Amino acid sequence: MPLNRDALSTDETYMLRCIQIAKNGLGLTAPNPMVGAVIVHDDKIIGEGFTSAYGGSHAEVNAINSVTDVSLLKSSTIYVTLEPCSHYGKTPPCADLIIKMGIPKVVIGLKDPHEKVAGKGIKKLEEAGCIVLVGILQKECEEHHKRFLTFFTKRRPYLILKWAETADGFIAPEPLKRGEEKKPYWITNTKSRQLVHKWRSEEAGILVGTNTVLDDNPQLNLRDWDGKAPIRIVLDRSQKITTDYHVFDGKQKTIVCTEINDREDDIAEVTYKVLDFNSNIPQQLCNIMHEDQIQSVIIEGGLQTLQSFIDAGLWDEARIFKGTNRFSKGIAAPKISGRKLKQIQILTDQLTIIRND
């Protein structure tokens, strides 16, 4: 159900603002969460901040540093989407800074599930005499932090399935329709393709199967959108993909998952991981991505790879484009069911987003 902004309390209104500004960190902060913070004095916002790119300052620090008159902090409230950290990482604990600056009230969207925090930040603030409220717009904050929460509660990335299918339900044509050049066979329009590049900039990884690479020779990068390119994860059991394919261009980090790593090539930005291809491949891939701190992944094909994650129940969202053209024959789209979140018309294409509840 959409949020009724007219019915929001004062605390909820400021928390909504925290969520809005936190989105500025989408695709940049991982493995840190993309937190938003707002500082309010006498019902007026005097400071705002969101988490910097990984290694930089956290949202609370940026919000405090944005305040012109720091004397006002001692009679202000700080709103934050996620519990302030209480441990030393690449930066000092945010809870300590809040206490040091004398901010008397802290309003938190949700408790941090990370084992290094998990209530310790809240406890530290309360022990220092701060008034702490937890659970303001909690559902909305959980939705905002879905990647981070999935990673630490389910110990796997947030998994987004994406494909485009024709009006008659095919994701690829029969081989005779393809030319000799290895390149994608487009089903969607240019606006939809630009949206996909935006999505790639928002997620940590992008995963495809062997046949997708062999048939389409995709670059799996950003061309129609600015941002950070995702880590490429490529399945290649028998090492059929030769080094002249785009995935070996050395332009972004690439993980090749194979059965036996006997490759002697030293290729820039490419690492190899060994899988048992006779045992639950989706779960093994999730384990590898978790080990590599990849918090979210778009799975872009092909059919076998997509369907294997669907059948294993290992997916969170599916984003499905339906174009207007027809193939009559070809590779049929994956079979999936879930709760429909939204349906959007993008020029001639229809985009349906469903959730695995």
Write the layout of secondary structure elements.
Elements: H1 10-22, E1 36-41, E2 44-50, H2 59-65, E3 77-82, H3 94-100, E4 105-110, H4 120-127, E5 131-134, H5 138-144, H6 146-153, E6 158-165, E7 170-173, H7 190-202, E8 205-208, H8 210-216, E9 231-235, E10 254-258, E11 270-274, H9 281-291, E12 296-301, H10 303-311, E13 317-322, E14 330-332, E15 339-346, E16 349-355
Going by helix content, strand content and strand pairing, the class is: alpha/beta
Overall form:
elongated
Mean pLDDT: 92
Percentage beta strand:
25-35%
Number of helices: 10
> Which parts are unreliable, with pLDDT below 50 for 5 consecutive residues or more?
none
Largest beta sheet: what is the strand line-up? 11-10-9-8-12-6-13-16-15
Question: What does this protein look like?
Answer:
The chain contains ten helices and 16 strands. The protein is of the alpha/beta class. It has a nine-stranded mixed beta sheet with strand order 11-10-9-8-12-6-13-16-15, with helices on both faces. Strands 2-1-3-4-5 form a five-stranded mixed beta sheet, with helices on both faces. The protein is elongated, with a radius of gyration of 23 Å. The mean pLDDT is 92.
